[in-house]
Specification:
The complex is a heterodimer of chains A (146) and B (83). Helix content of chain A is 34%, strand content 34%. Chain A is an alpha+beta fold and 146 residues long. Chain A has a single domain (2-145), classed as Aldehyde Oxidoreductase, domain 3 (Alpha-Beta Complex). In chain A, a hairpin with a 2-residue loop joins strand 7 (120-126) and strand 8. Chain B has one domain: Beta-grasp domain (Ubiquitin-like (UB roll)), CATH 3.10.20. With 83 residues, chain B is of the alpha+beta class. Chain B has 3 helices and 5 strands. In chain B, strands 2-1-5-3-4 form a 5-stranded mixed sheet. Helices cover 29% and strands 28% of the residues of chain B. Classes of the chains: A alpha+beta (146), B alpha+beta (83). Chain A binds chain B through residues 34, 49, 51, 53-54, 57-58, 79, 90-91, 111, 114-123, 132-135, 140, and chain B through 6, 8-10, 12, 56, 59-61, 75, 77-83.
Chain lengths: 146, 83
């Protein structure tokens, strides 16, 4: 299990290959990548603020829950903070399991919880200035299915 | 007691500080908020709508009626938008 909260870009290909190689006995690997929407070119940049310390604790707790709940051989979460341009990769999740259903479910669970339980806040910088992205009711509602 | 109070996102912007040390005898988070709100308008503005705020005590999500005894770090922020 690995977790990285970082400002630097990550190499999706290298991370995915390394994760899959490390999960040789598992049989199934699912990866998800989050990308900054450019809002049709209207987004100048996105700034992601986080709570150092709590971020790692919260993501670690979410990953522990996923490992306990599904048959997972391994899990990876990389989440960036700082200033990102439209089209840049914000985050990735990878899960490895003997069964693809578990790998998919655990990846979705991790995504749902990262959205509203990991202390990140997004601010969009556009032509009309800066706006904090509001949390969506549907993101909170998505936790109920778990 | 002395607690480290942290603010994030628009809460930080409204108050104008990322963190500060606060001397308080507040029994609960709600009591601490009442003390802060009484200080200055910028705090009143930041805490005007508690439904749009979340609180963490020692880096764990908590609630406004939670006791502050033994807590070293209190953080106020809007609902999180990760992922």
């Amino acid at each position: 299990m690995r977790l990285s909260v970082q400002s630097a870009p990550f190499d999706l290909g290298a991370e995915s290959v390394a994760f899959a190689k490390g999960a040789a006995g598992a049989g199934a690997v699912v990866t998800f990548t989050g990308i900054v929407r450019d809002n049709g070119g209207a987004l100048a940049a996105m700034e992601i603020e986080h709570y150092p310390g709590m971020t790692e604790r919260a993501i670690g707790a979410i990953m522990d829950q996923a490992m306990a709940r599904w048959s997972l051989a391994d899990a990876l979460v990389i989440h960036r903070h700082g200033r990102l341009a439209g089209g840049e990769m914000i985050m990735m999740v990878a899960t490895a399991s003997p069964h693809r259903a578990d790998a998919f479910a655990a990846a979705e669970f991790l995504m749902d919880y990262l959205k509203s339980r990991a202390p990140f806040w997004k601010k969009e910088l556009g032509p009309d200035g800066a706006t904090w992205v509001a949390a969506k009711d549907e993101d909170e509602a998505a936790l109920l299915r778990w | 007691m002395s607690v480290e109070v942290l603010y994030f996102a628009w809460v930080r912007e409204r108050i104008g500080l990322p963190r500060e040390k606060v001397q308080t005898d507040a029994a609960t988070v709600a009591d601490l908020i009442a003390e802060l709100v009484a200080r200055e308008d910028r705090y009143a503005l930041a805490f005007a709508d508690l439904a749009s705020l979340r609180v963490a005590l020692d880096q764990e999500l908590s609630s406004f009626d939670a006791p502050l005894a033994g807590v070293r770090e209190v953080a106020f922020f809007p609902p999180m938008t990760g992922g």
